[in-house]
Every structure is written in structure tokens, then in C-alpha cells.
Amino acid sequence: MLARAALAVLACSACGDRAVTPESIAAGGTDGQRVEVTGEVHTVTFDSTASAQRKAVVARHAADPSPAWLFDEDAEEQLAEASAYEDIGGYARTPDHYVLIRSVTPDGVTLGQPSFTASKLKEAWGLAVHLTDIDPAAAMPEVGSVIKVTGTLHRVHWNQRDELLAIVDDARIDLVSGPPPLAGPGETCTRDLACNARLICDRATATCTPPPREIYWDDPWRDLNGACDSDADCPLGQRCDTAHAIAATGAYAARYLAAQDTGRHVCVLAAGATLASECPRIYTARDLVGARFVAGKEICVQAALFAPVPAADGDTHDQIQVDEPIPYPTADVGYHVFGAATENGPPYKDPALGAATVVDPVPDQQIVALGTYRYDPSHGWYEIHPVKAYFAPAR
After folding, report:
1. I want to staple 227 with a disulfide (CB 3.0 to 4.6 A). Which of 46, 100, 111, 264 is the partner?
2. Model confidence at 79: pLDDT above 60
3. CA distances from 342 to 98, 221, 345, 349, 367 (A)
């Protein structure tokens, strides 16, 4: 079994020989070789294991001209009836995460390029730093950061695929340049996004902490309907709208966890909330789909809308574009086909919420989606669910 890497991000003053690139290591390095290389982070990703049952379901729909079948089937609804806090369904996660680095963007990996194909996994991958233990005090380096990596080169079959991909195990990561660090454990905060990606802002103490436990899809903590009984149930910076109750019937009723949430209230942004007040750090669609964040965290993601897709469960899947959609685990449908999910649930569509009502954007509209990060093991992707606001990006 391969040794696994733990993450420690440190300052770097001597950044090594820049003639050695992630691409040259991936192409010519020897398995077991000790390497030292500098590159730019272009995404993070993770690993999952697809069940035989889910593979069979996907295979039955292989000839469908669009992934619309996903939004008519009831896997999510069945999932929400489960009480166990575990990944159930089609795509169980493993502890494996990867920070992908390169020195140049290869041709054909960006959506919209004439030469783009979904078969270019090796080119899109570059070289990966393999992590199984992400220290909440030192979250994964952000997209666009330059890092120096020292560790042991291996080649692995990732995500049940045939290609051998280059990874660095037992790795030390030195941060060369990047965005200023966000708050770490025990530091003060006013929003989740003031804390680094593996921490939330604890409402009781106004400090950055891990969530109270591993948060699964149907967890009642920051649940997928945004339900609350008082402000204490909402993320710091949001309030519980006690003047409004989740409907028992009709278009705006809770479809999941109905017995738990019907008649409760919803967490909404404070009066006068703005993009600047709610989103001190704005991330990309790559971060959304790549497992950067701890589940349950409130995040802000900027992207162009691909399409608003009404689902049988009453959600609108406001699918956003992923500009480099290849190096992510297998899911029910590829991100190059249908983007990434931000889900506007029935309770937040209710016009009775007034200014807090969430209105679906339109195709190609640039948006910043704010909402709760969670993993959907039935379909194999991370999503924002529920969306609590769509902002216009800053100009």
C-alpha cells in the first residue's frame, strides 16, 4: 500500500530548479523517485468508488441524448429518508484528496476550446499531491497559488480508471505565493468564509472551528431545506425568519425531510446583505466540484449559469459551467455535459419570503451563488444545497 501524504503549508524562500516542471516529472519520473518540483495549483479533486448498482443505472441511460433522467429519478428523495449519517447510494467517498499542479495549461482541457475532449485526463491532471489527512489549520492551497512540493513519485489507477496518473506521496508543500491565508482554528470570524476551507465560523463563539461532526447529505445540522427554529440554528451572519413557515403542501413545501422541517422557518441573509458582506472570499466552480470545503460550510462560488433545470422533486438545478471539467471523479454525468449543481429548493422559492426569495438565474448569466456545501452520494458530486442567494458579481 502506498504511503499517504499529510499537508503542511509553509513559507518558501528557495523554490528549487524551475527547469524541473510538473509536466516533466509526470512524463519522465520513475516510480519511487524522490522529487522536488514547483508548479501552480489549477484545481483540487478527490476520489470515490461507484457501486455496481449505480454503474448499472448509468449504463441503462448511456444512449439518452441528455442527462434529464437524473432529475426525474428519486435517488435523492430516497436518500433523504435515511437516518444514518453515512454515504449511501452510488458513490461512496474515500479519504483521498489531490492538489493538482502544472506550469502551463495544456491544449484542449478548457471547455469551449475547439480541441476539447473528455478523454484528456492525463493532460488535465498534470501532477498531483496526494493527501489523506487535511489539517484544518492548513487547508489545501488555493487555485492560482504557486507551491513547491517535495515527496515520492508514484503512478496510480485513480477513481477506478485505466490511466496511470502521476502523484506525489509523503509530500511537504511549501507555499511560494498565493492569496492571503484565511483564519485558522480558534481565530475570530463573522462568516464561514472568513475561515479557511476546512473550518466553519461557530455561532456561539464567533471563532473558526470544524463542524460538530462529519456532515452528510441528510444531516439536520444546516439541513438541505435551510430549516431553523431560532437564529441559533443558522450560520453566523444569517437569521431565522420566524415570520415565515415552511409550507406543508404546494409548490413551496419541503420535499425532503418533510416530517422534520414542515412548519419550521428558514435561515435567510440579514437585511442589507451584499456580496461584499457575505462573500469575503469567492471561489470557482473548480473548488465546488473538487471537494475543497468541509461539508456544511457556507460558501460563495462565481460562475456562468449553464442551465436552470427543474427537477421532479421541486428543486431547480441551476447548473453552473465548469471551465476545466475533466479531472474529477466519475459521477452520474460528466461536468463537461451539464456543469455543476447549485440547487434552489422549494422553501427558498416561496414569494412569501419577500426580499429573501431566491430567483433562478438565466443561461449565461454571471452569478455568485451563496449556500451550503454538501456531498450527494447518490449522484457522486458536491453541490450547493440549498442556495440562499444569487448575487451579481462585482464589476
Report:
1. 264
2. no
3. 23, 19, 10, 14, 11
